[in-house]
Amino acid sequence: MTRGAEAPGRRDGEHVPVTPDWTCGSCGDEWPCATKRHHLLSEYQVDRASLSVYLGSCLAAATQDLRSVPVTALQDRFIGWVPRGPRTI
Question: 51 near 59, Cβ under 8 Å?
């Protein structure tokens, strides 16, 4: 079981992941749930790169816990929903 994604001193209603199943501790949906996605987009609205790094670390931990779930499904679940900005050169 991985413990890295759980924030110390968390408060009720924060929609944090419960490992090793990676479900939402508030609503029981797969994490990140719709509410958490909304909160993450608001929190990281000007720094999508950091959001991607955070979610990538969660994805890496989840792949260890959810070995029976196809990796592509986990990629879609953890990072596939993040809006992509325009590419700059």
Answer: no
